[in-house]
Design a protein that fits this description.
The complex is a heterodimer of chains A (about 450) and B (about 55).
Chain A (H helix, E strand, L loop, with lengths): L1 H5 L3 E4 L2 E9 L2 E8 L14 H5 L3 E3 L8 E3 L1 E2 L11 E2 L14 H5 L12 E7 L1 E4 L3 E3 L16 E3 H8 L12 H31 L3 H9 L7 H28 L6 E8 L14 H15 L4 E6 L9 H11 L2 E5 L2 E6 L5 E7 L4 E6 L2 E6 L1 E3 L3 H8 L24 E3 L9 H28 L1
Parallel strand pairs in A: 9-20, 11-18, 12-13, 12-18, 13-14
Antiparallel strand pairs in A: 2-3, 3-8, 4-5, 6-7, 10-19, 15-16, 16-17
Chain B lengths: L4 E4 L3 H12 L4 E4 L14 E2 L4 E2 L2
Parallel strand pairs in B: 1-2
Antiparallel strand pairs in B: 3-4
The chains are: A alpha/beta (about 450), B alpha+beta (about 55).
Chain lengths: ~450, ~55
């Protein structure tokens, strides 16, 4: 990624979208819309002083909403370019409120609330489409209760939980536990506030609120307005502190997730959604289970699937090694449903096809190996590029020219073409680069001849 | 006529295409919808099979 940022032959147009494509192979004219970041790309050093000052906290999309970021942000810590961006949906200043704190905090004077989007024109000989994929929304499979049971997450959310630069700093904290910890924090703030209020009464009357309250309950201080107010405030304080103590007690028992279940083919090989095999999910789940085991040697993983498709160089060995060294159990069977048990533990209901029995098993965390779905922007871009898409929504190609789209001079690679893993995406990308060059040389030859 | 090439999408595939073309001496315009390149791969903690860091 770094190389892209500093290669003299690459013009990086991030936070931009292709608007219009005219012309033909060898001679395309492209219109690109550069969206307004409200930060000057030439001035921003990426130091992050602005986001430290920003008062607006929003869910972090890069961390799939598991963490938080500010209204001015970098997409992720090591992102290229490191230019920060203001989110116009949340920024106070851009929504007519008085703020501008980031501008004051920026030593490079890079913040520009008046920045407008820019339209630029390019002339190119050929185009490579590498727009990737989207993660299948598992909430569509109601029986898995994604979004309803906190401890059912997607494979990519699990990646963020595993990551040292992720929202948990690489600890396998369960989402339900993190929600309770956030609630405790919130209640502690409230408790400190109400403690201040009743503290004033205590000081004034030289008595603890608890002692006063027992006397008050007995019927003393009737008609004493001041003390009635005190009693009222004390009751409010108890209404905060009592649930807080209960939550704190619960939180004492929290530990990292140790019993993991991976569910394969969530949206793939499913006639209701995508009939195809997404290809990479089996190895992805095995890899995640191995990494989780590296995080804590007592971690056990069960991978539920119709079959484990370890097709590729070294894949089968990796699978076997995971089973032998990383406490992975492969359970053959499709999961029928996930329900929530005690302590927010998900319970997986599945058929063990080897024993021909329906079983239930409790886990700490369930990870869904979601399908590779076509990118949501495919239709719009296909119209702009005037190329065809297939019945699922990937760009259409033919078997003997797998990188050529329906329009000459436009090529596709990676998951925009169909589900594939990283090595295959890289190989396709290099092939697409070669095809793109062929257009340049062919049109040059043609020009020389004429 | 231009010898430039447009790459749409800055994930692992778009990055690889761009670097290959740039190394071959072609001028590349890499368009990415999001504020930074990296795509889905940047969200991965480690990558198979070497368990190396994705970024």
């Amino acid at each position: 990624m770094l190389d892209v940022g500093r290669h003299p032959n690459i013009e990086l147009l991030a936070y931009s979208e292709v608007e219009k494509v005219e012309g033909e192979a060898g001679d395309f004219r492209i219109t690109v819309r550069r969206k307004a970041r409200y930060v000057d790309e030439d001035k921003c050093t990426g130091c992050g002083a602005c986001k430290e000052k920003c008062p607006t906290i929003v869910p972090d999309a890069f961390n799939r909403g598991l963490g938080q970021r500010k209204a001015i942000y970098s997409w992720f810590a090591q992102g290229i370019p490191s230019t920060h961006t203001i989110d116009p949906q949340y920024c106070r200043q851009l929504n007519g409120k008085k703020c501008g704190v980031c501008k004051k905090g920026c030593k490079a004077d890079a913040i520009n609330f008046d920045q407008k989007e820019r339209i630029i024109e390019l002339e190119v000989a050929s185009i490579i489409v590498a727009t990737g994929y989207d993660i299948f929304d598992p909430a569509l499979i109601h029986e898995y209760q994604y979004g309803k049971i906190a401890n059912v997450v997607t494979a990519i959310e699990f990646e963020r939980l595993l990551s040292a630069s992720g929202p948990t700093g690489g600890h396998l904290d369960r989402p339900s536990d993190r929600a309770i910890e956030a609630e405790i924090e919130e209640l502690e703030k409230k408790a400190a506030k109400s403690q201040k209020v009743i503290g004033k009464f205590e000081e004034q009357h030289g008595e603890s609120s608890a002692e006063f309250y027992t006397r008050y309950e007995k019927g003393e201080f009737k008609g004493d307005e001041e003390r009635e107010k005190w009693a009222e405030r004390y009751k409010e304080h108890l209404a905060i502190v009592e649930p807080l103590e209960a939550l704190k007690k619960r939180a004492e028992g929290f530990s990292a997730a140790k019993r993991l279940a991976f569910i394969q083919c969530v949206g793939s090989r499913d006639a209701r959604f995508y009939p195809f095999c997404s290809g990479y999910c089996c190895m992805h789940s095995i890899k995640e289970a191995i990494i989780a085991h590296e995080h804590g040697s007592e971690t056990t993983s069960t991978i539920f699937g119709m079959d484990i498709r370890a097709v590729g160089k070294g894949f089968e060995e990796y699978k076997v090694r995971g089973g032998n060294n990383s406490n992975i159990r492969y359970a053959r069977g499709r999961v029928a449903e996930i329900i929530e048990g005690p302590d927010n533990n998900p319970i997986v209901v599945y058929e063990d096809t080897r024993e021909r029995k329906v079983k239930e098993e409790e886990f700490d965390l369930v990870i869904l190996a979601t399908a590779c779905a076509p990118n949501s922007g495919v239709k719009q871009l296909a119209e702009i590029l005037d190329i065809e898409i297939d019945r699922f929504g990937f760009y259409k190609t033919s078997a003997n020219q797998p990188l050529d789209t329906s329009r000459p001079g436009i090529f596709v690679c990676g998951c925009a073409h169909g589900p594939m893993d990283i090595p295959e995406s890289v190989a396709q990308a290099s092939s697409a680069a070669a095809r793109a060059v062929q257009i340049v040389t062919a049109s040059e030859k043609l020009r020389k001849a004429s | 006529m231009s010898r430039d090439i447009l790459v749409i999408g800055g994930g692992i595939a778009g990055i690889q295409s761009s670097l290959d073309l740039a190394e071959m001496g072609f001028k590349v315009h890499l368009v990415e919808r999001l504020p930074s390149i990296g795509g889905k791969m940047a969200q991965l903690d480690k990558t198979f099979p070497t368990n190396d860091c994705a970024i």
